[in-house]
Amino acid sequence: MSADGFTRMSIYGINLDLFSSSPIVILKVEDENRYLPIWIGQPEARSILMKIQNQSFSRPLTHDLAVNLVSELGGTMERVTVTELRDSTFFAKIHLQIDGRSVEVDSRPSDALALAVRSGAQIFAADTVIEEAAVEFEEAIEEAPEEEVVDKFKDWMNKVSPDDFK
């Protein structure tokens, strides 16, 4: 656990729930072997993946527009936080700096993460959420061959459902 109740995370990847065909964004606890799976919508998954894969478009997409608006209004996105898990639903906040003051905006985690990958904002999750919903692997996934990592997540995803996070 961290001192302030939040732990730094990074986006490990996006996978597909084989049962529901819903995308899952997988956050990784930095310097640990724990992963936080969050079921998200198709549009948000596409938005996150497009930015991670450095795809660009001639016109701004919705999440690009939101980041541009904050910037043009003199603000910056400092961080996003996954704040709680309630009734199988994750909640998040976007933390902005505008004219020297801190502003918190309620958000779905999927939108907050799509904004974070565009703005460079840091990603955090509440320690209580990590304790409740994170998956831990015995060995470091980064050290395993990619096929083995995919197989481990597929095995885990075959056994898990959103109801497991109640």
UniProtKB/TrEMBL annotation:
<dbReference type="GO" id="GO:0004518">
    <property type="term" value="F:nuclease activity"/>
</dbReference>
<dbReference type="InterPro" id="IPR003729">
    <property type="entry name" value="Bi_nuclease_dom"/>
</dbReference>
<protein>
    <submittedName>
        <fullName>Bifunctional nuclease family protein</fullName>
    </submittedName>
</protein>
<dbReference type="Pfam" id="PF02577">
    <property type="entry name" value="BFN_dom"/>
</dbReference>
<feature type="domain" description="BFN">
    <location>
        <begin position="6"/>
        <end position="137"/>
    </location>
</feature>
<dbReference type="InterPro" id="IPR036104">
    <property type="entry name" value="BFN_sf"/>
</dbReference>
